[in-house]
């Protein structure tokens, strides 16, 4: 028998300890609990201020509580929230038009997360291959150190065994090859391959940009074998690299593209984009989602795309990127014993730890957090910066100041 919900639960004090008491321990969140945010500014339960250079892992591209997005969400919240997939709605139709007109795609499928978008892309690729070539064409080729989501299918496709331990048996017909290795790709991509999925810049794998020659080779191999090329732009998409999608910068057009994270600026929404020919293989009843493309998510995402897909906005992203790279290159030059050369694209940047400090990226970011700067890691060896795309020059300078202060504190206790 269930006890009646305590009427005071919504105002009951909660702390970081509450996480350990009531939530499944899939994460190890920071000790501080953010309670309020605006732009790149965050405040915790004690009123302490932080400069956020994480944007919720490349999600809040337009900053926290962006007033334009708040207005779009509020307006839609007072209009219609949810209809179910027996009906369409005006916001999702407008969002579909915006994305297909701005990209290579003719068709869009909307869902709730990057994992779902990749799941849909891989299902579509297999369905296309089975229909066009037969069931023998089913193998998925992915890259080592990649990350494509947490469903059983997508986590198996991702090239990081630590995320699949204990979940065996895993889905079959999945191969992994080294990233940026053209010869390995040639050896792996044969006539039985249904899809090759790749991040144009590996995020979780260490913020490693794909070589243009490598991505072009994948395109050529897919054309040769009839496989579909899938670009996972969950982290790199929606302005993060300085163009609406990174494929536009590298000059390689995929058959399917997945987008999430920044697409909703924190409101859960994702998209799978593809061509007319391929999209037709998802016919009525072959795939679906309850919440995907709901009016609330679509209204927010449409405003995000309209705001970011502007030449002046994207030019500013590239300008901000140049300033941060210049600061990090100088930081690395000043402390070569601690950091390697920064890498990345746009405002998705990795700063690798030097040989003597491998495995200690988290130690450094914890010190930076105590000093008021929120940073990410990309594995144990890389500090990752992914500030909101609206970051100002003043905030860039402040982040540089705190990172230098954190270096001194880190080396003092190392």
Task: Specify the CATH architecture of the largest domain.
Answer: 3-Layer(aba) Sandwich
Which regions are unreliable across 5 or more consecutive residues at pLDDT < 50?
A: none
Structural class: alpha/beta
Residue share in helix: 25-40%
Q: Please, what is the average pLDDT?
A: 96
Q: Mind telling me the CATH superfamily name of the largest domain? A: Type I PLP-dependent aspartate aminotransferase-like (Major domain)
CATH class of the largest domain: Alpha Beta
Could you tell me the radius of gyration in angstroms? 22 Å
Strand content: 15-25%
Q: Which strands sit side by side, in order, in the main sheet? A: 4-12-11-10-7-5-6
Distance between the termini: 54 Å
Shape designation: globular
CATH topology of the largest domain: Aspartate Aminotransferase, domain 2
Quick one: biggest sheet? 7 strands, mixed
Q: How large is the count of helical segments? A: 14
How many distinct beta strands? 17
Number of domains: 2
